[in-house]
Design goal:
The protein has 2 helices and 5 strands. With 133 residues, the protein is an alpha+beta fold. The chain has one domain: Trna Endonuclease, Chain: A, domain 1.
């Protein structure tokens, strides 16, 4: 499935879907998605072993994966996980914790998703605990 014509919104949604599947396969349960407050949006709220994980997903289209022959579009999506963004996610996470009356631990994680243009294949990199309460 060639995804090179996908819009930015479609690419983001596909990246979040891939991230959710990755989390499920690694023992997380997905509690919520796209939670919006005035402080920002939480892409994925997952839970594992009594801890809430507010997961920020960054997705990029690539001609090839980094291990393949370089294509000139080796953009690193982690560049968008800067401290200001992480703080915004943490503040929105605080809203979620208060609204849901969560009394356990929580943390902010990141997931980077590379989607190959020609076939939609994905590579995922999970970044646990990029910020902690």
């Amino acid at each position: 499935m060639d995804i090179s014509s996908y819009t930015r919104k479609q690419v983001g949604k596909l990246g979040e879907d891939v991230a959710c599947e990755y989390l499920r396969r690694h023992g997380f349960s997905i509690r919520d998605r796209n939670y919006v407050k005035k402080t920002g949006e939480l892409d994925i709220i997952a839970e594992r072993e009594g801890t809430l994980h507010f997961v920020e997903v960054k997705t990029v289209l690539a001609h090839n994966f980094l291990s393949e022959k370089s294509s000139g579009d080796d953009y690193d999506p982690s560049l968008n996980l800067h401290q200001a963004k992480v703080r915004k996610v943490a503040r929105t996470g605080e809203w979620y914790v208060l609204e849901k009356k969560w009394e356990g631990e929580w943390q902010v994680d990141g997931i980077l998703v590379w989607l190959r243009r020609r076939d939609g294949m994905a590579r995922v990199s999970y970044l646990p605990q990029i910020s902690v309460k």
